[in-house]
Design goal:
The complex is a heterodimer of chains A (150) and B (407).
Chain A: H1 11-18, E1 31-37, E2 42-51, E3 54-63, H2 66-78, H3 84-98, H4 126-140, E4 147-148
Parallel strand pairs in A: 1-4
Antiparallel strand pairs in A: 1-2, 2-3
Helix pairs in contact in A: 1-2, 2-4, 3-4
Chain B: H1 6-11, E1 19-20, E2 23-24, E3 26-27, H2 38-51, H3 61-81, E4 89-92, H4 95-110, E5 116-120, H5 129-138, E6 141-145, H6 155-161, E7 166-172, H7 184-193, E8 198-201, H8 213-216, E9 220-224, E10 235-239, H9 241-246, E11 257-260, E12 265-267, H10 281-297, H11 299-318, E13 323-326, E14 335-340, H12 345-353, E15 357-358, E16 360-362, H13 367-373, E17 378-382, H14 389-406
Helix pairs in contact in B: 2-10, 3-10, 4-5, 11-14
The chains are: A alpha+beta (150), B alpha/beta (407).
The complex binds pyridoxal-5'-phosphate.
Residues 94-96, 124, 126-127, 172, 176, 201, 203-204, 224, 365 of chain B line the site of pyridoxal-5'-phosphate.
Chain lengths: 150, 407
């Protein structure tokens, strides 16, 4: 019945939505930032454990739609053991992919995150996918205040 | 539902024949904005083709024609809400501007530090923020009357908030997030025994029921044209003449003056005092056409038909496991707000859209209502006179299927 949506709602997304990875409070986090999408009310708290400029653990709490939950869940997996610079570079590539800014992105460059490429056909949902990354960006820049997608 | 001419009405709305994602459009986002009948679309294009000019300005034929049509629309609005006088009908951009107008004119003239304004827990942001801004400027205090979990105003608690410091009651006639219809007659009568004026936000109520401002005895009634099958960009502020006469003007400019010199200007009489500058002329005329169209069908017949639609939709929704209806007031208009276990409203909205069904997913500009129910957002199907039982079946089938897909 939902054939048209297969590119947007891939099985991986349902899976991460049902069983989000790294979904927990991190008591000894070095960085903790809240992200908020005022348009849909999605809220998340991102926790990072750092070793120098390397992210050694990431987790989150919060509630959102399947796209935003899958996005943050996938992100916490993929940024582990990445340096700040590597994570920022990934953010840029991911952002260009989801906003359709760069049609020629090699999906291999983003690994598992490629399942979120479908949102570029749904402008109303792009922010759902990017909220996690904007929050990460704020955490890496060590901002304390909550981020908003607006 | 046999006597209501829904098929004939549908034929008057060209957009209802559109295909969305290759499926017939099922438009259930009427609380956000309604679609327009040919009568409205044609009245606007006819006006631009044959009669357009600025109003109240020229002696030439077109200006006179345009002015006549514009003022005729004002009288149609007057009749539609049964106001006593066309001087009481002020055209603005919409309900939002109307409330801001009252806050900035009536509010600034009458509300001081320590005074109180009473609203309810189910207001749209447009009936919260203008009062907060006024309170910040003046030092007045905003009081919020609570509701119960059905989404009904808790009347005794509302009543208990009224006291000698209360300078205005501003309540929504029908809630856009819940569908609740407030006991506005009782509210007005109670407030008036304490000499407190009442503003009703009629943005949602106006397309769904007959409204008689004299019978209600409300002091202000505001609504938007676009939710009444009319154009966007035009709305109405009704105010009792004596109140409007006493209020300072809103914006300064052309049309709202009697004389201007560099020393002092004098203001025009009602309603022009509140209509500075060139208004949305064609839109006002289009709103008049929408009212003519609705009068032919009859607001009482529309209310009766929509009540049946809502009852049917509510019954069907209750059969769906995991669906929770948000807002179950005893007195309720044609709005079905709901959540599904483990499925976010935005996913519901996108999934239904792929089936051609337009609903709203979000906080409906009523964040405090969402907070009250402990949800970030709801999905909302809102019905209009052109919706059918069959469309509700399509909606329910869509919801059932998406629950399966999400697993
Ligand atoms: C109850 C209520 N009040 C006010 C408004 C504001 O109307 P507008 O945006 O047309 O000014 C709305 C519109 O959503 C509404 O539903």
């Amino acid at each position: 019945m939902f054939e048209d949506l297969r590119d947007l709602y891939q099985e991986v997304i349902f899976d991460h939505n049902r069983n989000p990875r790294n979904f927990r409070v991190m008591d000894d986090a070095d960085r903790k930032v809240e992200g908020f999408n005022p348009l849909c009310g999605d809220r998340l708290t991102l926790y990072l454990k750092m070793d120098g400029d390397k992210i050694i653990d990431a987790s989150f709490q919060g509630s959102g739609c399947a796209i935003s939950t899958a996005s943050v869940s996938l992100m916490t997996e993929i940024i582990k053991d990445k340096t700040e610079a590597e994570a920022e570079a990934l953010f840029k590539t991911f952002h260009d992919m989801t906003t359709g800014k760069d049609e020629n992105i090699q999906l291999e460059a983003v690994g598992k995150l490629a399942v979120l490429a479908g949102v570029r056909e749904y402008p109303a949902r792009v922010k759902c996918a990017t909220l996690a990354w904007h929050t990460l960006d704020a955490a890496l820049k060590n901002q304390q205040q909550a981020v908003s997608t607006e | 539902m046999t006597t209501f001419p829904v098929e004939r009405i549908r034929a008057d709305f060209p957009i209802l024949a559109e295909k969305i994602r290759n499926k017939p459009l099922v438009y259930l986002d009427n609380a956000a904005s309604c679609q327009k009948p040919n009568a409205v679309i044609d009245s606007i294009s006819e006006f631009y083709r044959h009669d357009y000019a600025n109003i109240h300005r020229g002696v030439h034929t077109l200006s006179v024609r345009a002015t006549d049509k514009y003022e005729a629309a004002r009288d149609k609005v007057r009749g539609f809400i049964n106001a006593a006088n066309t001087k009481e009908i002020i055209f603005v951009r919409g309900a939002t501007e109307a409330i801001n107008l009252v806050a900035q004119t009536f509010g600034k003239a009458n509300i001081k530090a320590g005074d109180e304004i009473v609203i309810t827990a189910m207001e749209h942001h447009s009936n919260i923020v203008p009062w907060q801004m006024l309170c910040e400027e003046t030092g007045a205090v905003l009081k919020v009357a609570p509701m119960n979990v059905q989404g009904e105003l808790i009347y005794p608690k509302f009543e208990a908030l009224l006291n000698t410091k209360t300078k205005l009651v501003a309540v929504v006639h029908m809630s856009n997030a819940l569908g609740s219809i407030n006991p506005v007659k009782q509210i007005i009568d109670t407030a008036h025994t304490k000499n407190i004026p009442v503003l009703l936000d009629g943005a949602q109520a106006i397309p769904h029921m007959p409204v008689d401002v004299q019978e209600l005895d409300c002091d202000f009634y505001v609504f938007s044209g676009h939710k009444l099958y009319g154009p966007s960009g035009v709305g109405v502020m009704y105010g009792k003449q004596a109140l409007l006469e006493a209020m300072p003007p809103y914006q300064g400019g052309g049309d709202m003056i009697r004389t201007v010199s560099f020393e002092k200007s004098t203001y025009a009489g009602l309603p022009h005092k509140f209509e500075a500058g060139t208004p949305a002329i064609a839109e006002v005329i289009g709103l008049g056409a929408a009212i003519d169209y609705l009068n032919e069908i009859g607001m009482a017949a529309i209310a009766e038909y929509e009540a049946k639609l809502l009852a049917y939709a509510t019954d069907q929704a209750k059969q769906i496991k995991g669906l929770k209806i948000i807002g179950e007031a005893h007195e309720k208009g044609a709005i079905l707000s709901f959540t599904l276990d483990h499925i976010h409203p935005h996913d519901i909205g996108t999934m239904l859209d792929s089936l051609g069904i337009a609903i709203r997913a979000g906080h409906h500009c009523a964040m405090p209502v969402m907070e009250f129910y402990g949800v970030p957002a709801t999905a909302r199907a809102s019905f209009a006179m052109y919706n059918t039982k069959e469309e509700i079946d399509v909606l329910m089938q869509g919801i059932t299927s998406l629950i399966e897909v999400f697993g």
